[in-house]
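Consider the tokenized backbone below.
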């Protein structure tokens, strides 16, 4: 009887180990996808290629934040670094905090009237979902 219980316990432990590794592996793959797609998004943003950026965004995000010649008050934005990418269990989505260097429009709160031709260093916190091997920006995290 003790031998049977030991064998069952070992089998359960092995199953839990594989499940745990599988979850971490999936999450690390999704983080890699997010990083790759956000690099592509900001590569387009840096050039002012708003049409290229749209393929990395939901329709609602595009409708809300894309304007004539700017996105969320910025003419261009360059990715500087990934600060943090984490999974929100409740929302079942990721948040990606990124450091950017942007050129804001004259009506943006980030616009520096004393140095209008100098980029502004700031952060964006984005809500991102991963589906079918693609990352899609849904909103700004607040």
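A designed sequence for it:
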């Amino acid at each position: 009887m003790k031998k049977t219980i030991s064998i069952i316990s070992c089998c359960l432990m092995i199953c839990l180990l594989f499940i745990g590794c599988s979850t971490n592996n999936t999450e690390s793959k999704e983080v890699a996808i997010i990083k790759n797609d956000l690099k592509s998004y900001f590569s387009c943003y840096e050039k002012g290629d708003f049409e290229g950026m749209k393929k990395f965004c939901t329709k609602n995000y595009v409708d809300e934040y894309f304007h004539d010649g700017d996105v969320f008050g910025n003419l261009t934005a360059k990715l500087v670094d990934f600060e943090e990418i984490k999974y929100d269990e409740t929302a079942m989505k990721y948040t990606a905090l990124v450091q950017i260097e942007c050129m804001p429009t004259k009506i943006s709160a980030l616009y520096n009237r004393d140095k209008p031709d100098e980029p502004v260093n700031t952060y964006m916190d984005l809500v991102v979902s991963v589906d079918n091997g693609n990352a899609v920006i849904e909103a700004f995290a607040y």
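The chain has a mean pLDDT of 88.
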